Structure formats: C-alpha cells, structure tokens
C-alpha cells in the first residue's frame, strides 16, 4: 500500500530515494525530464560527510536542466522552507544545484524570490568554481618552473 504524500513529506528522511518518491507523488511528470537522470545518486548525495559543495558537473547539469524549477520547488516543499527538521536534522544532498546551506539562506527570503535567488546562487557558484579550477590548473602547469619575473641581464 502506498503512503499518502502527507506521510512522506512529514518524514525527516533526506535520501535520494525519499526525494524521488515524494517528487513523483507531488508532480510525477517532471522527473522524467531531469537532466540528472544519467548521473549517479552519489553525485548528489556524496559519501564524504564533509563534502559541502556540488561538483562542477552536478552544478552545470542542474543549471542546464529543463525542470530545475520543479526540482527546487519539490525540495522546498519537502524541507518545508525550513533549515532544521522537526528532529534537528539538516537537509542533505544537492538539489537544483544547491547545497543545504544555500537553500537555507534562500528560505529566509520572501517565498516569491526563492527560485530567482536559487538561480543567481547557482550561476555565481559555477563562475567561482570555474575560476578556482583555472587557477589550480595554472598553478599545476607552473610546478617546477622558476618563480617571479625573468631578470634582464645588466650588460
């Protein structure tokens, strides 16, 4: 027997399976069009508990997703626009390209601004992450090379 949507939303389970189950009950059509369908659930629920930001692959996949708004709306309903659950558990996983703390900051704003803020946060995250990756690649390319400017010979 299937659980009613209210029972699913009332639980504090933040797993990928729980999300898909609730999303399917809230609006079954959009999950078929999700750009993340071919990615692993561990990309969105990393095994490393200290992992706070999505990978660039996850962020860009979410950014280009045709149903990102539906994904964000679903996680906002599931989290109830709250940071802490009734039992003090924090949300987990990356949804619509955002980590739990980014979503919590959005929930503190007026509800009509949530998706626009989510879009801005995701766009800024991608630009910053790409810049960090470029700097890292540049540093790695310069490993072993002399530091500083080349000196002109004083002849």
Q: Care to describe what's here?
A:
There is one protein chain. Helix content is 50%, strand content 0%. With 155 residues, it is mainly α. The chain has one domain. The longest helix is centred in the C-terminal third of the chain and has 28 residues, at 114-141. The radius of gyration is 20 Å and the shape is elongated.
Number of beta strands: 0
Please state the CA-atom Rg, rounded to the nearest Å. 20 Å
Helix coverage percent = 40-55%
* Domain count: 1
The fraction of residues assigned to DSSP E strands is under 5%
Give the number of helices. 7
How are the SSEs ordered, and which strands pair?
Blueprint: H1 5-10, H2 16-26, H3 41-44, H4 56-64, H5 68-79, H6 100-107, H7 114-141
Helix pairs in contact: 2-5, 4-7, 6-7
Overview in brief:
This protein is mainly α and 155 residues long. It is 50% helix and 0% strand.
